[in-house]
Amino acid sequence: MAITSTVTLNMARRFNAKSETVFEAWTNPEIMKKWLFTMESTNKVAKSDLRIGGAWEIVDRRNGVDYQAFGEYVDIIKPNKLVFTFKMPQFSDTEDVIRVFISPVQAMCEMTFSQEIVVPHEEIWTEEDIEREKAEYSTQSEEGWGMMFENLKKLVETGAINMDGKMNK
């Protein structure tokens, strides 16, 4: 059995968009493909069976290598709550849990995002080694999600993003 620890990443973003629009961006495969992981030109597969127990998947091809992310929907309350598992087998055998809450705030909405990141480690590691690894996983995840959330913002607020992730004019 693998030895693991868990670190929780929390992020929040406000969008000048309706809750329904942001929720759909998380769950509609055609929209997921435009912002989730990289961009529409590199996302080769986007699937979403939006029901509890249903699967979701993204396959992003970069430099000839496929990066697969997938999971299962655990809880769904349209358009305000989405809980799902998250796996990327090319990096780890672990399974994270992601929670997305979307709340209307005046004419906008706020999205709170939480990822319970499972961090594998070696039995011989010290507490310092484990804390360092947890911090690295959290920092890398925050950077990745931060870039994705910028693309999500451009997409839900303007309706489009360019291939390079920049806003269309």
Concise synopsis of the structure shown:
This protein is of the alpha+beta class. It is 28% helix and 41% strand. The longest helix has 32 residues, at 127-158.
What would your notes on this structure say?
- This protein has 169 residues and is of the alpha+beta class.
- Helices cover 28% and strands 41% of the residues.
- The protein is built from 3 helices and 7 strands.
- The chain has helices spanning 19-27, 29-35, 127-158; strands spanning 3-15, 43-48, 55-62, 65-77, 81-86, 96-105, 108-121.
- A 7-stranded antiparallel beta sheet has the order 1-7-6-5-4-3-2, with helices on one face.
- Helix 1 (19-27) packs across helix 2 (29-35).
- The radius of gyration is 16 Å and the shape is globular.
- It starts with a strand and ends in an 11-residue tail after the last helix.
Topology:
Layout: E1 3-15, H1 19-27, H2 29-35, E2 43-48, E3 55-62, E4 65-77, E5 81-86, E6 96-105, E7 108-121, H3 127-158
Antiparallel strand pairs: 1-7, 2-3, 3-4, 4-5, 5-6, 6-7
N→C terminal distance: 52 Å
Structural class given helices, strands, pairing?
alpha+beta
Portion of residues within helices: 25-40%
Large-scale geometry: globular
Relevant terms:
3 helices; 169 residues; alpha+beta
